[in-house]
Amino acid sequence: MIQPGQSLPDMKFSLRENGEGKEVSTADLFAGKKVVLFAVPGPFTPTCSEAHVPGYVALADKLKEKGADSIICTAVSDAFVMEAWSKDQNASELLMLADGDASFAKALGMDMDTGTFGGIRSKRYSMLVVDGKVEKVNLEEPGKFEVSDAQTMLEQLS
């Protein structure tokens, strides 16, 4: 699993903005920036939709006031679903990235196999990433939502 002090791997992501698809790299997203990154097991799932994303939406302004250049949510899904979920969650302040084949989750050591429930997914976590390097990692225990929330990240921003 990726640890504080390590750099994020060089990866590409799919996303949709304003109805158009595009590809971005970790360098595009993280170089020279302070980024709050969080991952969820699945869009439109209960904890993700009822607590995790809404918390980051509610605290987006405060996170940015404390120095976050961007707030990124990633999930093992496709760009169309992530775009629809962003609209459903009124999450225009967040960048919703599709990790379609779980390559990012796997590269971080943050993947999990949920079997027939959904297959390979990302673990639930949050990270503070500065200029491509991980400063903080908040990994949830399976089935928990206690440390990767927006309030915890707000308290960790310096």
TrEMBL record:
GO terms for cellular component: cytoplasm. The active site is at residue 48. Keywords: Antioxidant, Oxidoreductase, Peroxidase, Redox-active center. It is an enzyme of class 1 (oxidoreductase). Its EC number is 1.11.1.27. One of its GO terms (molecular function) is thioredoxin peroxidase activity. Thiol-specific peroxidase that catalyzes the reduction of hydrogen peroxide and organic hydroperoxides to water and alcohols, respectively. Plays a role in cell protection against oxidative stress by detoxifying peroxides. This is Glutathione-dependent peroxiredoxin. The lineage of its organism: Bacteria, Pseudomonadati, Pseudomonadota, Gammaproteobacteria, Alteromonadales.
